Amino acid sequence: MTSRFCILFLAILSLPLLGFPTTAMSQSKSFWTPPSSVRTCGGSFSNVRPFELSTKIVRYDYPRDHGLHFTHYYGIGVSRTMAGRDVEAFKKYILSVAAAKTFTQGSYNSGNSPFYIQSTILKLTAMYITYMESKGLLAPDERETLIAWGKPMIKNQKQRRGNSAADSRAASGVALISWGSLTNDKRLIKAGQKNWEQALPFVIGSIGKLKRHPDHKNVPLSELSLEDAYNEALAAVVEGAAMLENLGFDAFNAKYKGRSVHDAIAWWTGVVATKPPGFKGYSRKSHTWTVAWMPIYLSKYPNNPVAGQMRAIIKDVTRNKKPMFESVGLGTATDCLWGYK
Questions:
Q1: Which pTM value belongs to this model?
Q2: How far is it, in rounded angstroms, from Cα 263 to Cα 258?
Q3: Which of 79, 167, 190, 291 could cross-link 333 (Cys pair, CB 3.0–4.6 Å)?
Q4: Is the bond into 152 cis (omega within 30 degrees of 0)?
């Protein structure tokens, strides 16, 4: 994910968001609840490219992106755990990764930001802990090991440098929301909500006409797919909205200039259905470009106006694979994590 700091983007972030409805957040609510159905869970580690682990995370161009491939492996491991496969073996592995403080250090210089990988690690760890505790499979000291792993990564989710594009803001929001909920830290949840909101001017403001994000102003159009950039940002916004709604916020009805997240989703679903030339998102496996956000949205709104269109797209894209999606940035197997039926 390319992120370049831009003054123009700061101006956009200062625009007021109209009509973000909220309700009081209950202490008993969680950002995510393990689904009752795990029929699409599972997956194979053989689909993951080789990677190397270290304390410091350095992003290389694909396919040498070790952080990206690790998060793919992590997501498959969570999906397999939920399917009841090699539960103890994977727990032993991820605890050893956590104890080694893997990928906790990293700074942004240029190019792909390490903070994006850390946001995915934080979210997956929050989901993993939540699932394992729901089954009574995680001891207190094991939880502490995982919490200690994530804690140093939090500060990077709050900064803008290397983390200013719409997809980055929303992804960091997701990380802070999930971690704040897991640790019962309302300040983190609030910070996550703020980050997530900052992606809305681009996502909602692009309805009807795709536009270049200010953060990408120096990227030649020959190297930038407006469709992929928008889909990537929308995906993180949908994921964050689902978590916020679980916590009591009416996030999908959040509005910018009179339009809502629901409106952006309905419009983009129609665009995706036309299979735009060169759009990488019409696939089940990729970094973040896939339509794997659709099962998340359908888990919250199974009867939404474009549900039929969404289900037809999902069926066409996934061809009954299991798990249906492997979208790394969204936690990999979104159909598994969100109980898609």
A1: 0.89
A2: 10
A3: 79
A4: no
Structure tokens at 134: 């729901």
pLDDT per residue over 34-89, tens digit each? 999 999 999 999 989 999 999 998 888 777 889 999 999 999 999 999 999 999 99
43: left (phi over 0), alpha (psi -120 to 50) or beta: left
- Residue with the bigger pLDDT between 12 and 51: it is 51
- Distance from the Cα of residue 184 to its chain's centroid: 20
